[in-house]
């Protein structure tokens, strides 16, 4: 369900330091529990944008870190 996915996204995002994404996922979780479907849909649009932002940051970090010899 959306609520279970939001819970997983919240935990994973927080672990990786993507706190804005984790906060949005927490809000979706809460909206699911209180049955606010219209609010959930708006939050999902924000999550999509924030997910892209986090991916860009992670990609830049990976590309700028020194490469280790295999």
Number of helices: 3
Gyration radius from CA atoms, angstroms: 14 Å
The count of β-strands is 0
* Terminal Cα span: 40 Å
Helix and strand sequence: HHH
Assign the structural class, choosing from mainly alpha, mainly beta, alpha/beta, alpha+beta, or little secondary structure: mainly alpha
Strand content: under 5%
Give the overall shape: elongated
Strand count, sense and closure of the main sheet? none
Determine the fraction of residues in helical runs and give it as a percent range.
over 70%
Question: How is this structure best described in words?
Answer:
With 70 residues, the chain is an all-alpha fold. It is 83% helix and 0% strand. The model has no long low-confidence stretch (mean pLDDT 90).
Write a short abstract of this structure.
The protein has 70 residues and is mainly α. The protein is built from 3 helices and no strands.
Set down the secondary structure blueprint.
Layout: H1 2-16, H2 19-33, H3 37-64
Helix pairs in contact: 1-2, 2-3
Characteristic terms for this protein:
70 residues; mainly alpha
């Amino acid at each position: 369900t959306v609520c279970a996915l939001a819970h997983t996204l919240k935990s994973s995002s927080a672990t990786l330091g993507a706190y804005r994404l984790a906060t949005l996922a927490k809000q979706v979780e809460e909206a699911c529990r209180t049955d606010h479907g219209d609010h959930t849909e708006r939050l999902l649009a924000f999550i999509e944008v924030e997910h892209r932002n986090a991916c860009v940051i992670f990609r830049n970090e990976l590309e700028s870190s020194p490469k280790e010899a295999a």
